[in-house]
Amino acid sequence: MFHELGAGFTGSVDAVVSAQSIEGFWGRELSYAYLRNVEFMPEPFYERAVGSECGDTGAAAGAVALVRAIDGLYAHPGARARDSALVYGVSDHGAVGGCVLVPA
Q1: Higher-scoring residue by pLDDT: 96, 1
Q2: Mean residue pLDDT across the chain
Q3: In terms of C-beta density within 10 A (0-12 exposed, 13-18 middle, 19 or more buried), how is residue 74 classed?
Q4: Is 55 left (phi over 0), alpha (psi -120 to 50) or beta?
């Protein structure tokens, strides 16, 4: 999925926002995806995981990740605005989804 998203985006994203839980399996999966798509990933690597920030959000994880990514595109006191964000999630049954956000 990251390869397809990266093919339609010039350069690298500024942040990765994951709708995944904080289980070790998902961390390894992200590490492998990073290594296969290093030219598309942020450097230095910046990742936000909904599971570590909000706990188990269940079916709402994708929507929460999307809102977190949109919020990151705008400047807040003490934080810089990101120019782009990769948002992704994978269900327990294997359904995969993702998108790249840029400010309008």
Answers
A1: 96
A2: 86
A3: exposed
A4: left
* pLDDT at res. 86: 92
Q: Show me where the domains of the chain are located.
A: 2-8+15-78
State how far the Cα of 72 lies from the Cα of 82, in Å rounded to an integer: 6
Instruction: Kindly calculate the radius of gyration of the chain based on its CA atoms and give it in whole angstroms.
Output: 13
3-class DSSP assignment, residue 6: helix
pTM: 0.85
Omega before 44 within 30 of 0, i.e. cis: yes
